[in-house]
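A reminder before we start the practical. When you read a complex entry, don't treat the lines as separate problems. The point of joint prediction is that each chain is placed relative to the others, so the output describes one connected object in space. Small molecules and nucleic acid strands, if listed, are placed in the same frame. In the example below there are two entries. Take a minute to note the order of the lines before looking further.
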Amino acid sequence: GQNIDQPTEMTATEGAIVQINCTYQTSGFNGLFWYQQHAGEAPTFLSYNVLDGLEEKGRFSSFLSRSKGYSYLLLKELQMKDSASYLCAVQDSNYQLIWGAGTKLIIKP
Amino acid sequence: DAMVIQNPRYQVTQFGKPVTLSCSQTLNHNVMYWYQQKSSQAPKLLFHYYDKDFNNEADTPDNFQSRRPNTSFCFLDIRSPGLGDAAMYLCATSFVAGGSDTQYFGPGTRLTVL
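Here is the predicted structure of the whole assembly.
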């Protein structure tokens, strides 16, 4: 079966750094996406990784290791508005997105 | 601005009363998706259209139907909503050209079934 695992919930402090991990087992691999979803809203695209390594985009970075079936999303200089769920999704061999259940990130002052 | 629009944002219906949710896009994307998402769960793909080709997920109940009359519009019909169908319904679009096809989401329609 296909499976995406990520922690259910994490807590971090404003101004700090947090790393949200995602491990996956899928039928084929055509890229990994990270989405941000605020409560009651739709997911918004954050990043896409298809090759191993780190992709940096402002305060957010995403890392991929295909051999380990592993990715992480790194958020720096945390702000209160970063409180949201972060969804990891993998595109399988049929280009279908397999979604994780999301990690709820709570930012404390 | 190019975008994905969903109407209505909030829909209340009665048990068993048919309801239609709509989605439109100005991105000129060739693929449109309908997802169901319940609280603290991953989005669940119901079906998608690749151009005019309809693709139904194996576990999507027959109660859910979809129409895509043209490139810009897609509809989700729930023929006889049950209490378990209360959820956020998300429409997404992507442009599939053999590489990454980032999906862009509309704001969602929150369905309440009384």
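Discuss with your neighbour: The mean pLDDT of chain A is 95. What might explain this?
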